[in-house]
Amino acid sequence: MTDDALSRYTIQELTALFETRQVSPVDVTEACLARIQKLNGRLAAYITVLADDARARAKTAEQDLVRGEARGPLHGIPLSVKDVYETAGVPTTWGARELSAYRPAKDATVVARLRGAGAILLGKTNVDMYPYDGDRETPRLVGPTRNPWDTARTAGRSSGGSGAAVAACLDYGSVGSDTGGSIRIPAACCGIVGVKPTFGLVSNYGAFPYSRTFDCGGPLTRSVYDCAVVLGAIAGFDPNDPTTMRREVPDYTSRLDEPVRGLRVGVPRAAREGNTPDVTRTFDQAVGVLRELGMEVQEADLTHRSHAQWGLVASVLETIEIGEALLPAPASSDVYATYLAARNVSGRKRLLRLASRIAEATRDAYQETFRTVDLLVTPTLPVTAPRFVDTTSPWQLPGEPFGELLSRYTRIVSFIGHPAISVPCGMAVDGMPIGLQIIGRPFEEETVLRAAYGYERAVGGMQRPSGIAEPSHPTPPVLDNQ
Question: How is residue 239 annotated by DSSP?
């Protein structure tokens, strides 16, 4: 079997193949490393590739499987993590040149849990060094991640490296982080599945901070089942992170097959405002599929605040909290300049009080809505992945900055702390994928995943890029610490 063919399996498929000894962790690790060697120069999906360590761990995992000592469905599966998660002895850079020499002494909780589940860490994926860099040509360690469907376009915000890596089959899944949409946006841009869990479900210990109020780690994979597996491995209480909740973590795969008939699904009126025609058409088709599956679709009135207001308030909170965050040393004055500016936001305390009041009112409004529905659905994005040269869009709402266009439907979910998934729901006429966002009540990830799984099965799963186009200009080389 060719490397390209091996790399296209899902985690669920690989687990079955491992059990029957048709392929091994060594086979699939080498397949992924070959794909990275072949394509990463074009995509800049990875910053650091741990080739030697991955090969060694793959051999150990293969021996474990032969002895019947699998630790679970991730045993021997090659994955990546966004380069905001500390990894012992390995560069953890946040995408910043100034942090290229930083090697933490221990693993972030997310990394430790992946390793504990038997996963093989292939490397660290590309990331914006600041939450609002968006993929512009900013001075950072490597160039912006390019979308596997069209390398002239963004792969989607700060977890774009993870999204591109999964979509281009450079690995079988990745863990990103989401502050205002940075898991769901690349999932939609790259045509894969991404889950932002309930705030407090996944530990942020050992993760570079964006916002202590909104940061959530979560999986990006090629199927809903795979997201459920990875989420189950990384979720749970962590004494090192006081924001995590003492809750039992279920097997998120165990209820995926349960019927979805009777689930009440709300469609906000604003979900059709300011989208491209392709996005609205595809969204309406997706809602039709949910009806066909027996879900009870109804209109949800959530127009009490504009998208622009949500984005503004969330930005205020994030900016203030960036100023309160701590970076590891060494970091240059350039890196700290952003933090210093955030600390000196004019009227900081007054803005924080105002933002907090609006946040509380918004959460109350959503809590009231979720008394009458089990789920909400929206497009993940109002547009397909923008081109790097784009600075404005005809689909911006009045008062909506271009930088907030992609987070129009995602930021509010982070704002209220609820779980949400983006699942592929079709293609636009420009050849780019479109995502459907399904939002649930806090800590009801099982319901969100079940609805997404039912939808995914009904439409036949995701499509994959048929080929990787040449970039419009050269991409800087990727680091390799081997």
Answer: T
Pairing of strands 46-49, 150-154: unpaired
- Average pLDDT value for residue range 97-103: 85
Residue 97: which residues within 8 A CB-CB, separation 6 or more? 139, 140, 141
Helices and strands (DSSP H and E) totals, the chain = 15, 14
d(CA 70, CA 118) in angstroms, rounded, equals: 8
Average pLDDT estimate for 71-81: 96
Calpha distance 476→449 (Å, rounded): 37
Candidates 463, 450, 466; CA nearest to 195 is 450
- Residues paired with residue 480 on neighbouring β-strands, in sequence order: 49
> What's the chain's average pLDDT?
86
Q: Domain limits of the chain?
A: 3-474
Residue-wise DSSP of 146-213: EETTEEEEE--STTHHHHHHHHTTSSSEEEEEESSSTTHHHHHHHT-EEEE--TTSB--TTB--S-TT
Helix H or strand E segment including 296: strand 296-300
Q: Which positions are annotated as active-site residues?
A: 82, 158, 182
Cβ-in-10-Å burial (0-12, 13-18, 19+) of 60 comes to: middle
In this prediction, residue 363 carries a pLDDT of 81
369 contact partners, CB below 8 Å, separation of at least 6: 266, 300, 301, 302, 376
Q: Which residues pair with 379 in a beta bridge?
A: 436
Length of the chain (residues): 482
**How far is residue 57's CA from residue 59's CA, in Å, rounded to a whole number?**
5
Mind listing the pLDDT tens digit for each residue in 220-263?
999 999 999 999 999 999 999 999 999 999 999 999 999 999 99
The tokens describing 445, both together, are: 């990830």
CATH topology of domain 3-474: Amidase signature (AS) enzymes (3.90.1300)
Sequential DSSP letters for 399-441 = T--HHHHTTTTTHHHHHHT--EEEEEEEE-TTS-EEEEEEEES
**For 298-401, where are the alpha helices, taking DSSP H only?**
307-324, 333-343, 348-369
* Residues β-bridged to residue 235: 202
Burial of 112 (0-12, 13-18, 19+ CB in 10 A): buried
Give me the phi and psi of 194, to 5 degrees please: -145, 140
SS3 480: strand
Residue type, 220: L
